Amino acid sequence: MRRVLAVVVIIVGVAAAGTLHAQNQDVPVFPNLSFLSVDGTQRINLESLRGKPVLLTFWASWCGPCRQELPELQKLAGDLKSENLTLVTVNMDRTPAQGMQFLERYGIDVPVYLLSRNDIAQLGVQSLPTSVLIDREGRPAQIYEGYSPAVPGEIRRLVVAMKGGPGSSDK
């Protein structure tokens, strides 16, 4: 499981033909990671979010592209609330206070979690921002490394295409 994210990228790329639902049937479920809220008061795991699309984003306050992307992802999560999109951001700053100061300064309101360095290393996250869109069944639908202004639109399209998955009333 050392380079899970790299393997997932290859699997998702190979599965690119066909519909979104058909693509992901052969893709393994994303590891059930456990996240601690930045204030230490809440713990969630990915399995508890099954039935909802999840956007897992790794970012840091010193990362210029992250500074561009986070406000866009905040807006996207608000726009896709009716689709039950859950945004989980993982702060990669040396200290969580650095990330929180950045968010406060720029008025960005996103859920911020911490993940163990071991889990981050096992996922193979090597560049920021890195985002993983996880479908309603817990499988990675798409992985985005780096920033592109086209990413929020692509995520929107994929999340809307996920209707009818587990936990959805649109079956």
User: What is the helix/strand order?
Assistant: HHEEEHEHEHEEH
- Secondary structure class reads alpha/beta
Flag low-confidence runs: 6-22, 166-171
Tell me the major beta sheet. 7 strands, mixed
Note the overall shape.
globular
Strand order of the largest sheet: 2-1-5-4-3-6-7
Question: Which percent band covers the strand fraction?
Answer: 15-25%
Can you characterise this structure?
The relative contact order is 0.22. The protein has helices at residues 4-14, 20-24, 64-79, 96-106, 117-123, 151-161, and strands at 34-37, 43-45, 54-59, 86-91, 112-114, 130-134, 140-145. The protein has six helices and seven strands; from the N terminus they run ααβββαβαβαββα. A seven-stranded mixed sheet has the order 2-1-5-4-3-6-7, with helices on both faces. The protein is of the alpha/beta class and 171 residues long. It is globular and about 40 Å long. β6 and β7 (140-145) form a beta hairpin. Helices cover 36% and strands 19% of the residues.
Structure in a nutshell:
The chain is α/β, with parallel strands linked by helices. It has helices at 4-14, 20-24, 64-79, 96-106, 117-123, 151-161; strands at residues 34-37, 43-45, 54-59, 86-91, 112-114, 130-134, 140-145.
Q: Which key terms come to mind for this protein?
A:
171 residues, alpha/beta, seven-stranded mixed sheet, 6 helices, disordered C terminus
Topology overview:
Blueprint: H1 4-14, H2 20-24, E1 34-37, E2 43-45, E3 54-59, H3 64-79, E4 86-91, H4 96-106, E5 112-114, H5 117-123, E6 130-134, E7 140-145, H6 151-161
Parallel strand pairs: 3-4, 4-5
Antiparallel strand pairs: 1-2, 1-5, 3-6, 6-7
